[in-house]
Amino acid sequence: MKHSRVPLALVATVMVSSLALTACGTSDDEGGGGTAKQPPKTTALGINQADPAQLKQGGTLNWAIDQFPVQFNEMETDGNQAATNAVVEALLPSLWHSRPNGEQVPDKAFLLDAASRTEGGKQIVTYHLNPKAKWSDGTPITYRDLEANVRALSSKDPAYKVGSPAGYEDVSSVRRGKDDHEAVLTFDKPYADWRALFGAPNNTPLYPAKYMADAKSFTTGYLNKIPVTANAYKLGGIDKTAQTVTLVPDPAWWGDKPKLDRIVFHAMTTESMPAAYANGEIDYFDLNASVAAFKQVSGVKSGEIREAGGPNYRHLTFNGKSPKLGDPKVRKALFKATDRETLVKSGLKGLNWEGKPLGNHFLMPNQKGYRNNAGDLGTYDPKAAARLLDEAGWKLDGGTVRKKGGEELKLRFVIPTGQPAAKNEATILTQMWAQAGVRLDIRTVPVNEFFDKYVTPGDYDVAPYSFSRTPFAATGSSGTYARDGGGNDSKTGSAELDDLLDKAGRSADQATALETVNAADAEAWQVAGVLPTYQLPEITAAKKNLANLGAQGMADIAYERIGYTKQ
User: Fold this and answer.
1) 52-91+223-309+539-565 belongs to which CATH class?
2) Which of 59, 223, 363, 402 is in Cβ range 3.0-4.6 Å of 437 for a Cys bridge?
3) What ranges in 115-182 are assigned the alpha helix state H?
4) What is the pLDDT of residues 36-66, one digit of tens each?
5) How far apart are CA 521 and CA 166, in angstroms?
6) Where are the domains of the chain?
7) Where do the H-state alpha helices sit in 507-549?
């Protein structure tokens, strides 16, 4: 359904690296040394996998997240954030688990089985829900919940602020089957990615019907609170002062007993996470490819680094509604004025990880079907950038900053606080784009306001951050790249791109789907709203005795299986 956004900087935040690099770079001996590693397959797992039966019962997991969630409805536009996903997906139902290779299998705690068939030219999917499944208020989970979620997420009512309607918009009906635990969905058009619905792997868990019943409940029902849950853990408390969210086992849970006594999510800046980890204040966090963090935590004797080929990437988003960036020629000029090789080297230096400029918005280099569709827009060419800016009416006229109608080509480059990666990237691009006659106005804003007050409402010109991908290349991207996508922060797009993403999500033939995804990507490059820079390695730090959590690759997290080894 969507990408999850990770605030910047850390990679931009996540994902860049704490970037101990500036535009001038750093010495060759900084970082880990050695030969750079090829990214592992996205099917790789680095979670210290163990049979839960062999883990000890009890213990607390202190987990660092980079923002304190406010909107706990993941499907609401403002809830589309990685920190929110981490918390909510431990508490709400997911009908599906994702295996390391991206295959979707039923989560038997909620879904016994599901099957798709064609009848009368219509696609019909029948779900058999687990009759033991109940919400924390005692209400059974039934077809009514699926019906309410479909109605809310279909975007047929514009009052619902939805990230993306992909898939849900094509459901013409949800009806009761032989009983309340059998749901029958009928699709207007074939939809190959139907397993993307109602699942945590696509960041679309199931919410209670009463909180999806109307737009007000959808927006405010989970705002600053989590009123109802249904999973191995339930809410223990939200402490705004301490910036923590605590989860505890739900004694009414009908599935496998969770191993931990509690999970405590601690919101903190990414630059403070390594020290907190080294001091034993937290047990697990995502390094977001931060070089500085990698160096700090590598020497922690009680911990270890866990890696996988993450399906995530770093990028720059350009605000197509900005008066200065509304002309695609200007955005394309900035693409060509960006030396992505420099960004890759600075972002990954010290991680012993080989990287190249990313040539695709939807597929990673270690995924089947990947193709570099960037063309000349992915090539650093300052002279071509200058020509495009001239054609767009932005002239130097003997000065150092281009002007049009007496106004300078000065762009608001918005970054969040506490993110050294963003600061360094801002430095790099300030110098790089100055060569093309573009001036950057670096604006540092509170990390918890980065999306809600700046990126989402469009109060910026350029913003660096990362996208956390899902196993669904087309469906998982539509909210970000479709013109009506709730997560389309660039406010750019085209009818052709919408059509290609739609076709890719419907194709039952993988080869055809991948060809269509690549055609969509070629069009995304021409739209020039998002400039991919590089794939981010998935690198996490965890206490050595922490099991079943780490670098997940394409697999989702089974929270009830997380625990500590006995030794």
Assistant:
1) alpha beta
2) 402
3) 143-153
4) 566 555 557 899 999 999 999 999 999 999 9
5) 17
6) 4-17+310-537, 52-91+223-309+539-565, 96-212
7) 510-527
Asked whether the predicted pLDDT for residue 353 surpasses 70, the reply is yes
- Cα 190 to Cα 138: distance, rounded to the nearest angstrom: 35
Q: Are 425 and 416 in contact (CB under 8 A)?
A: no
23 — pLDDT class (breaks 50, 70, 90): very low
Q: Token pair for residue 225?
A: 């609170």
Element (H, E) at 9: strand 8-9
Strands annotated E in 66-203: 96-98, 104-106, 111-119, 122-129, 171-176, 182-187
Cα 47 to Cα 450: distance, rounded to the nearest angstrom = 30
3-state helix, strand, coil in the chain (%, to 5): 25, 25, 45
Torsion-angle region of 138 (φ positive above 0: left; ψ -120 to 50: alpha; else: beta): left
Q: Quick: pLDDT tens for 484-526.
A: 887 899 999 999 999 999 888 788 777 898 999 999 999 999 9
Phi-psi region of 369 (alpha: psi -120 to 50; beta: other; left: phi over 0): left
Using DSSP, how many helices (H) and how many strands (E) does the chain show? Answer: 12, 24
pLDDT value at position 399? 92
Q: Where are the alpha helices (DSSP H) in 77-224?
A: 82-88, 143-153, 215-220
Q: 547: pLDDT confidence band, cut at 50, 70 and 90? A: very high
Encoded tokens for 114: 């599901």
In angstroms, the Cα distances linking 411 to 23, 281, 340, 438, 532 are 19, 40, 19, 8, 19
> In the CATH scheme, what is the code of domain 96-212?
3.90.76.10
Q: At what angle do helices 340-348 and 420-434 cross, to 10 degrees?
A: 160
Assign domain 4-17+310-537 to a CATH class: alpha beta
As a residue count, the chain comes to 567
361-375 burial: b if 16+ Cβ within 10 Å, else e: bbbbbbbebbbebbe
Provide the b/e sequence for 16-55 (b: ≥16 CB within 10 Å): bbbbbbebeebeeeebeeeeeeebbebbbbbbbebebeeb
